[in-house]
């Protein structure tokens, strides 16, 4: 309970890294899995900063079996000489002093991603043990820390260090001498840090994510062309005799011998002996990144916006007297943006400052999208007649969501001392970046989207057609929602005339059967329960929307009718809460044509009403192929089978058990051949029918499959059929 007395004795003064351990969330956000991974990012980012500065081309991240993580680079190495002010070695200053490092000035680094002298020391403070080795001047220097404090561990086996080994802490305010542990070639430099996260800091649910590490390493290799990053997972047993230490020697000798990158890569592959070793190396920068992120058929090539500009910024600089003084400095802003549009409505936007991802965007993203939106609207207005846009209609105005549908973009800027909103750098806050990006995009993207730049006229036409199509889809979706919400009987009059709707008031159990052909519709009307089952017939095979544009899809009667009847919109504006049915059931004939129709319907759902599949609303009816009429004492009973193989097996069972049956087996050529009772029992009655729920476990993989099987590019589809012909399984189709 708080007391009324409050004096200086109540004040707590936390020195050194104690403040970090007391309030870790201030520095790494959280102490769960996110914070655990954030510590690793800080160590990796410091190595990447060396690469950005041009002094490092290789980083190795090793996951040890004891839970520790090691990051090694071949950069310049942390300084090992004495820092004049503190009289401590550069290693001890960097690892134990907050806001200490070379990234406050402009001499050693220009564009960096580290926390400006905070990252390494924070990770040190939150580790039960941290060891750092520095290769410089032909020697390997070593220093160890326990919970941020320097000292010496007495490891029983130096080759297998442990945070549980006896530790002797260096006396307060006494410098810790760097231990010389060996010699290295004179030209070899670099830093190696191994740390054990402190269980006293991170909660019990904190878990390391290998997948997040790989994603982060991969994106870094895209953002820093020419940087090779290797991840070694030692939890998987080794397969040979060569060790990681031997691999380092191979790389060092290769570098001194002047071998090229291919030779070094081959040496790496030969030296690594672990089952899980992943290596990342790219030279195309953000263009390669966009290509990697793109799924689906591209509408255009990858467009690039690049340039450099300067801006002035008032900052606090350290003067010769060691004091901070306000001064204006001229900063350089490098901009590198790649973007393309693909079929579909998903948006993939990745933004970075230096090599740090900014999930919340910021000034660089705002600058780009402001320009893109302005230039697209300007070009559409100039080509309104060609694009069939009525400028007098206030609803026919392109919105940012229309532009971003299907957009894949990577936005990067490199600046010195970026300002972020929050310690974890989710949003770029340096305001001067926004007008720079806008000006560059106005000039370069403006030429591309208007088609005035050579080679872009056809591409820009396809992009504009897609964007206008998205606008029409959004407008029509809004109108459809207004007229399809089932509130009274008058609203059903606006539905397609062939829709046989169910009675209102059963929205939570309502089912929509999409029926192949008018003949099957007549039988289905008699077989359905009109209280909650609606019927919508389609005529044959609908439009393949994977090949068609969004405008063609919207003008197709069957596609438009399905979207209107479902009543939840399409594309990005689709709202699953507005769906008029909780089951959408494809009821087609049990033959190859029926299977093709189902694929076409699924393509429509996947491209424009994907949440229906994601929420498990889409089903395929499973009508029987055969009916066996039993005879003798069981006359009047029937057995239905769903494939030729099942029929043969069932007949063999009947013969084996001496059960008589009519040898004239009825084979259904289509749903229309069944009478109402048969269709209800086998396909429509929830008590006796069989349905297959359509699931989508992996959206990215599903997108690739739909593009392959239903897209315009024929050779890959042909090759897929050839490659998988031997694996064909008749039991997986309905014949």
Q: How would you explain this protein's 3D organization?
A:
There is one protein chain. By secondary structure, the protein is of the alpha+beta class. The chain folds into 3 domains: 252 residues, Histidine kinase-like ATPase, C-terminal domain (Heat Shock Protein 90, 2-Layer Sandwich); 178 residues, Ribosomal Protein S5, domain 2; 138 residues, Rossmann fold (3-Layer(aba) Sandwich), CATH 3.40.50. The protein contains 23 helices and 23 strands. Strands 1, 2, 3, 4, 5, 6, 7, 8, 9 and 10 form a 10-stranded mixed sheet that branches. A 5-stranded mixed sheet has the order 11-12-15-13-14, with helices on both faces. A hairpin with a 2-residue loop joins strand 4 and strand 5. Helix 3 packs antiparallel against helix 5 and helix 14 packs across helix 17. The protein is globular and about 100 Å long. About 6% of the residues have low confidence.
Radius of gyration: 33 Å
Work out the helix count: 23
Indicate the mean pLDDT. 83
Provide the CATH topology of the largest domain: Heat Shock Protein 90
- The N- and C-terminal alpha carbons lie at a distance of 77 Å
Shape: globular
Q: Largest sheet, if any?
A: 10 strands, mixed
Q: State the helical fraction.
A: 25-40%
Tally of DSSP β-strands: 23
Low-confidence stretches: 103-108, 240-271, 486-493
User: Given the helix and strand composition, which structural class is it?
Assistant: alpha+beta
Please name the CATH architecture of the largest domain. 2-Layer Sandwich
Q: What proportion of the residues form beta strands (DSSP E)?
A: 15-25%
């Amino acid at each position: 309970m708080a007391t009324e007395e409050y004096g200086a004795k109540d004040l707590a003064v936390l020195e050194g890294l104690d403040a970090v351990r007391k309030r870790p969330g201030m520095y790494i956000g959280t102490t769960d899995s996110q914070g655990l991974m954030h510590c690793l990012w800080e160590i990796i980012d410091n190595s990447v900063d060396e690469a950005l500065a041009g002094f490092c081309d290789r980083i190795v991240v090793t996951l040890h079996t004891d839970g520790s993580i090691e990051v090694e680079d071949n950069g310049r190495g942390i300084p090992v000489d004495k820092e004049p002010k503190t009289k401590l070695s550069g290693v001890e200053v960097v690892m134990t002093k907050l806001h200490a490092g070379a990234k406050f000035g402009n001499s050693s680094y220009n564009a960096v991603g580290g926390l400006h002298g905070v990252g390494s020391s924070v990770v040190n403070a939150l580790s039960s043990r941290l060891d750092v080795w520095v290769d410089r001047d032909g020697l390997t220097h070593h220093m160890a820390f326990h919970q941020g404090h320097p000292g010496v561990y007495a490891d029983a086996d130096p080759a297998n260090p442990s945070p549980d080994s006896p530790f002797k802490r260096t006396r307060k305010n006494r410098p810790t001498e760097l231990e010389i542990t060996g010699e290295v070639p004179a030209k070899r430099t670099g830093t190696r840090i191994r740390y054990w996260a402190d269980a006293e800091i991170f909660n019990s649910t904190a878990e390391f994510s290998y997948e997040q590490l790989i994603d982060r390493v991969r994106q870094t290799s895209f953002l820093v062309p020419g940087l090779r990053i290797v991840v070694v997972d030692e939890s998987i047993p080794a397969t040979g005799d060569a060790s990681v230490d031997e691999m380092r020697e191979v790389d060092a000798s290769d570098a001194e011998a002047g071998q090229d990158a291919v030779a070094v890569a081959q040496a790496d592959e030969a030296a690594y002996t672990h089952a899980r070793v992943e290596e990342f190396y790219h030279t195309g920068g953000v263009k390669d990144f966009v290509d990697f992120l793109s799924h689906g058929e591209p509408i255009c090539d990858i467009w690039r916006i690049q340039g450099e500009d300067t801006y002035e910024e008032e900052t606090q600089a350290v003067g010769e007297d060691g004091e901070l003084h306000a001064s204006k400095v001229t900063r350089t802003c490098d901009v590198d943006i790649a973007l393309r549009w693909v079929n579909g409505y998903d948006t993939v936007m990745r933004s970075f400052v230096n090599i740090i991802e900014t999930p919340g965007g910021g000034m660089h993203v705002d600058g780009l999208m402001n320009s893109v939106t302005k230039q697209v609207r300007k070009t559409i207005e100039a080509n309104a007649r060609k694009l069939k846009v009525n400028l007098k209609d206030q609803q026919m105005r392109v919105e940012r969501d229309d532009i971003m549908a299907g957009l894949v973009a990577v936005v990067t800027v490199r600046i010195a001392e970026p300002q972020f909103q929050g310690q974890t750098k989710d949003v770029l806050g340096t305001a001067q970046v926004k007008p720079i990006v806008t000006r560059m995009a106005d000039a370069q993207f403006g030429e591309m989207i208007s088609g005035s730049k050579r080679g872009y006229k056809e591409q820009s036409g396809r992009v504009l057609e897609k964007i206008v199509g998205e606008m029409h889809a959004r407008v029509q979706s809004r109108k459809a929602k207004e007229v399809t919400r089932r509130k009274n009987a008058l609203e059903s009059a606006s539905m397609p005339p062939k829709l046989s709707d169910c009675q209102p008031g059963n929205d939570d159990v309502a089912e929509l059967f999409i029926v192949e052909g008018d003949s099957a519709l007549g039988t289905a009307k008699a077989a359905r329960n009109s209280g909650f089952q609606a019927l919508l017939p389609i005529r044959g095979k609908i439009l393949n929307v994977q090949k068609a544009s969004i405008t063609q899809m919207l003008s197709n009667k069957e596609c438009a009718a399905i979207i209107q009847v479902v009543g939840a919109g399409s594309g990005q504006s689709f709202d699953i809460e507005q769906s008029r049915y909780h089951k959408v059931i494809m009821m087609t004939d049990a033959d190859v044509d029926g299977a093709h129709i189902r694929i076409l319907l699924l393509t429509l759902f996947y491209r424009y009403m994907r949440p229906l599949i994601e929420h498990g609303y889409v089903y395929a009816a499973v009508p029987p192929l055969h009916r066996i009429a039993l005879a003798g004492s069981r006359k009047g009973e029937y057995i239905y089978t769903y494939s030729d193989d099942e029929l043969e097996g069932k007949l063999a069972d009947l013969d084996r058990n001496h059960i008589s049956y009519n040898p004239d087996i009825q084979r259904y050529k289509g749903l229309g051949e069944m009478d109402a009772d048969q269709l209800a029992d086998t396909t429509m009655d929830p008590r006796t029918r069989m349905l297959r729920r359509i699931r989508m476990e992996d959206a990215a993989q599903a997108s690739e499959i739909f593009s392959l099987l239903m897209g315009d590019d024929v050779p890959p589809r042909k090759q897929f059929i050839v490659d998988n012909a031997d694996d064909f399984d008749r039991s997986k189709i309905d014949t």
